[in-house]
Specification:
Elements: E1 4-8, E2 14-18, E3 21-26, E4 52-55
Antiparallel strand pairs: 1-2, 1-4, 2-3
Bound molecules: FE2/S2 (inorganic) cluster (FES).
FE2/S2 (inorganic) cluster binds next to loops.
Length: 57
């Protein structure tokens, strides 16, 4: 069975990590033009948020 972790990065996107590899980055600042994916806009808009990991499976 695969290991799946959602890692909320400090001041950045939610990373989807499967078996230790980042497979997607989801926007959580709301500014991405490629939603649901992060396009790096969080670096320019002053988004701040705490880091957190959630193990899904
Ligand atoms: S978190 Fe990166 S663009 Fe929103």
């Amino acid at each position: 069975m695969s290991s799946v972790v959602i890692k909320s990065t400090e001041n950045g996107p939610n990373l989807v990590i499967v078996d230790g590899k980042v497979v997607q980055a989801w926007c959580r600042c709301g500014a991405s033009t490629m939603k649901p994916y992060c396009d790096g806009s969080h670096k320019k808009n002053g988004f701040t948020a705490e880091a957190r990991d959630v193990k899904v499976a």
